[in-house]
Amino acid sequence: xxxxxxxxxxxxxxxxxxxxxxxxxPIWAETLFPYFQNYLLQLERPIQENLQFVxxxxxxxxxxxxxxxxxxxxxxxxxxxxxxxxSTKIPSGIMNLNVGDWMGSFDECLEIKSVKRELKGNYCxxxxxxxxxxxxLLSRDFFTTSSDSNVTSNTDNFQQxxxxxxxxxxxxxxxxxxxxxxxxxxxxNAFNFSFPIEYKCQTYEDxxxxxxxxxxxxxxFFIFIAVFMISITAYDIQGYFYQKERNVEDGNDCExxxxxxxxxxxxxxxxxxYTNGKKLFRSGKSESxxxxxxxxxxxxxVLSMLWVLIGHTFSLTLSGPLANGRDALxxxxxxxxxxxANAVFAVDTFLMVSGLLVFYGFFKVKxxxxxxxxxxxxxxxxxHRHLRLTPAFAAVALVSxxxxxxxxxxxxxxxxxxNFQGFCRTNWWSSLIYFQNYIDVSHWCVxxxxxxxxxxxxxxxxxLFRWALMGKPIIGVLLLLVxxxxxxxxxxxxxxxxxxxxxxxxxxxxxTNFHNLYYLTTHTRAAPWFIGAIYGxxxxxxxFGAKKIIRLPKIYWWISCGLSLTMLCGVTFTFGxxxxxxxxxxxxxxxLFNSLARPTWAVCVGWICFCCVNGYGGIINCFLSLNIFKxxxxxxxxxxxxxxxxxxxxxFSAKKAGYFTLFNVFYSFWGITMISFILSIFWxxxxxxPPIALEKFIFASRSNTSKEEPAATSKAD
Length: 717
Prior knowledge:
The protein is mostly helical. It contains 34 helices and four strands. It folds into three domains: 190 residues, no CATH class; 58 residues, no CATH class; 433 residues, no CATH class. α24 packs antiparallel against α27. The N terminus and C terminus are likely disordered.
């Protein structure tokens, strides 16, 4: 125990020579470090006795370490003291599951360099895989780590998905002549550690390598795109003002400059930030001249996107290093945490909206407007979806595959380079054909795009149901109902057989199997899309006169909307009962929830949309149709593509542990939302607007896909 006068000296002294710049370390540190050195010298004997287990170079440098440890006057010879200082110390709050504050000083370690000894710092992160009994932890404030039974043998649980919250990771600074294998052998033999430990080491050169040729090519590509867009924009603006001057000379109204300009070149239409920017930030009552746009969908999609953002912010905050992991775990088991955990229902909203818009687009056209299904029509139908989805997605995958390594650093940054950059370098091809959820589900390139796989695969099937509805509408609707029922039955069966959890924050469930066997597969998640298809068909039939809606007093419609909203809240909160998160698995509850909750959600959201379209939405429709939602809706696809990688980069570049509070979660959420929105402006102008303009130019004569349909892909995870 250090004397109290040391802490008094540390925190109350104001003598200027305590921080004299010319000194290698402050005076108060000279007083403090002898206690620290004595502790380290106690470790010398067990380490020196086991140097035969490490390489010769490592053994020599460790010997130098203890020789130079007592020197704190010469800056070059202080490398040993700095190395010890950069290594982790036992923090406070261990009983509060503070496993994130053990990382040491990452930057200090990498900056260590000794000219005399010709060595540098090598930062190693040692992760101790210790099973935690969550029931003991949450009920008795206790968890055991001393017995062999607690050594993890199967990590397919909460700890595997949130390792930095529940596994201690110790930052150890060693000489660069020692490898992670040397460190592992030394720790095992000198200190008799029985826990499974994973070591990941990095030197300054590993952390900050020179840019690769691929990285320079990608950077050059983005610079070219930016310069090209700026040049086209300058040309467009110059043409506008030139036409304005001509109107003044001719005595015409300057307000009609845009109307009197000659037809713009296709490149101007596609890449001008001025032309496309006006379209993006335009607001009005209707997005289409025939008023066929479904206004309420803009609000539904934007609110769902915000829910996705805050859900990902919450879950990925838990994935990062925390100083109060137990507080986070205590919050997870509370009912109010289901607001974040069940943000996954926003995906079902987007699936429902996608199916609705596809079939609404099918049947809002007249019989004479290319309603026959031909090979040419199918080609344009599928090409449209690829042009709409792929450019923006491919740009994100390109960045992920080449530029993530130099974009950050930290003790846990290897997770980003190994999983995000590594997976995209090997699996980019399967992600761009939108079948990755069946090809290699464990190695996702841009992980949140699993949703695009499901949406695209169902889009491929859409013409079959359109053909059935055009020939025999009743049979077509029955086929859609069967298609809705099949995924529900499969979901029940898969959950029952594999004992899958229903709530993603279940501390005891096998979340890996939940994702791979249920959450990411089309055959278990398709029901909301087909429900949306049924809504889309009937909305188009009613809106364009093919069918008539039953006229009831508005009070009944308002009551039905209220019941739908109540059911949505019930699915989010009430149904997340203790039986779905308990340590004892309840087959019936989990299986029924996975098979019925998402279709129920889609039915309720679809019904609200149905009421709004037919004039019975009232204040709900007014709110969902606000102009601000129409503007933000145009950016949701790019925000969806960009935000997850950004959150991971922020989380895993942390060099100190964060502190979990709801305020911090919301603070991070708004910051990430604004940064994602700003980046999405460039992404839309560079990779979304140009393909749309080029597609319209190519298929100007006849376009089977309506103006409404491209908005169908502005979705989120």
